[in-house]
Structure formats: structure tokens, C-alpha cells
Write the C-alpha cells for this entry.
Amino acid sequence: MAALCLGLRNAYQTIRRVTSFNASQFVASMCIEHMKANGDSWPCDWEELRDDYATCLVRSGRDWDFDDLQHRVEINFAADPHHPPSTSPASPQPDFRFLRSRYGQPSHGPNQSPDASIQTYLQSASSQKGEGAE
């Protein structure tokens, strides 16, 4: 009986971590959408993401609840995405986080971490601005 309970607990925790990771990916998309629509400025709070939530919800076909996303994902609203603290090049995960799942992170496997998605967008936007200046 104890083994069954432990197995169920582990399964529940795994499902919660994976669901929270997917929520973090969705919130990263919301933040990227916000930056695209607002001159690459980082959101100040969850309310600034409401329009982006609606856009991403339609685009993704997922059925996320805005309040559930706030419960699952912590956003570093004080972050400056244009000047994040330096990260270790040897580490695949940045030390600095724009987003953090409240229930832990599963290994990312083939999926990119939410922070890496944001960094990739910022690098792309920065290089596009650089090309436009030439």
C-alpha cells in the first residue's frame, strides 16, 4: 500500500511539474507577445499581460486560465530584459530567471526553457534592430 501511495504521489508531482513547465512556456509567449507590441518593454505586472494572454490563447488553442497561470508561474517584473545579469556560458540554464515555475522545473529535453525562449526573442529583436540601423 505504501508503494502505491508513493507511486501516486510521484506521478502527481511529475504531472504538476510538467503542467507548470507548459504554463511557464505559455507565460513566456505572453511576455514575448507583450514585448513585440510594446517596443520590447518588459511587462510591469500581470494586468499588462491580459491582452497578450487573449492573443496567445487563440494562437495556441490551449485552454489556460489566467488566474491559474498566475498561481503556477512567478514573473520577475523587476527584470530588465535588455541588461540581464551575466550568465555562465558553461551552463545550459541561465542563472538569471525571467520566469519561475512555483512547482519546480522538469528537465527540458527537446523543449527550450521559458527563459531561453525570451532570450532568443531578445537576441533576434536586437539583431533586427542592428540590421535596420545599417
Remarks:
- The two ends are 69 Å apart (CA to CA).
- The first strand starts at residue 73 and ends at 75.
- The helical segments are 2-37, 50-60, 66-72, 114-133.
